Amino acid sequence: MILFFGTREVKQDDPAGMAQLARCPACGQTVTLQPRSGRMYFHIFWLPIIPLGEKQHYLQCPVCRTRYAHWPQSRATQAQRP
Ligand SMILES: [Zn+2]
Description:
By secondary structure, the chain is mostly beta strands. It has one domain. Helices cover 10% and strands 54% of the residues. The longest helix has 8 residues, at 73-80. The protein is elongated, with a radius of gyration of 16 Å. It binds zinc ion. Zinc ion is lined by residues 24, 26-27, 29, 61, 63-64, 66.
């Protein structure tokens, strides 16, 4: 019998977070960065069994999927100007 196991991250939208309009430094697009969270799990056959560590909160660009743990408020303010 082959057993698939290991670690993987389970990601989801973060309703407690706040979306921010900003210019993404990675792709250069002006986007609404989405609040997301993720947590590592030990999995067996890709089913999350045991949580590992704490949940990580971050903002993610919807275009290039780059994650930003912290977003300087000054950059967000600059991106909102026309
Ligand atoms: Zn981007």
